[in-house]
Amino acid sequence: MGYEREEDYKDIDVEMLRIVVEAAQKRYISIAEGRMLYSLGVHTFEKLAKDSGARRVIGGRVLVNVQVLNEYIEAMFG
Q1: Average pLDDT of 44-65?
Q2: Do residues 17 and 33 make contact, with C-beta atoms less than 8 angstroms apart?
Q3: Please, which residues have CB within 8 angstroms of residue 9's CB and are 6 or more apart in sequence?
Q4: Strand pairing class (61-65; 28-30)
Q5: d(Cα 64, Cα 19) in Å, to the nearest integer?
Q6: What does the pLDDT look like over 1-51, one tens digit per residue?
Q7: Torsion of Cα atoms, 55 then 61 then 25 then 70, to 10°
Q8: CA end-to-end span of the chain
Q9: At 71, is the pLDDT very low, low, confident or very high (cuts 50, 70, 90)?
Q10: Which of 1, 32, 45, 70 is most open to solvent, judged by the fewest CB atoms within 10 Å of its CB?
Q11: DSSP labels for 12-36?
Q12: SS3 assignment, position 72
């Protein structure tokens, strides 16, 4: 499995991503979006997503369910 390159996501507006996710307009996010949104490294975010059960592989793409991840974070660290 390959990881996205940093330059592939340089144009993503993190604040706009946060607004979209919080408004529940986007239920699933990519690993690259998630690591920026949660300010974590790629490996840390992937482990958190896997441990929470929020990780889904569709085709060759890994998506993370934001609601499941947030509930896990609150339960484990809140």
Answers
A1: 95
A2: yes
A3: 32, 33, 36
A4: antiparallel
A5: 17
A6: 555 565 566 677 777 777 766 755 788 998 988 888 888 999 999 999 999
A7: 20
A8: 32
A9: very high
A10: 1
A11: --HHHHHHHHHTTS-SEEEHHHHHH
A12: helix
Which pLDDT score is estimated for 72? 96
Q: Which amino acid, one-letter code, is at 2?
A: G
* Spatial distance between the Cα atoms of 10 and 31, rounded to a whole number of angstroms: 14
Q: Which residue(s) pair with 56 in the sheet?
A: 63
- What pLDDT, on the 0 to 100 scale, is given for residue 67? 92
Note the pLDDT of residue 49.
97
Q: Which of 30, 28, 38 is nearest to 73 (CA)?
A: 38
What local confidence, expressed as pLDDT, does residue 16 receive? 75
Residue from 38, 33, 34, 35 nearest 12 by CA = 33
The closest of 69, 65, 62, 66 to 3, measured between CA atoms, is 62
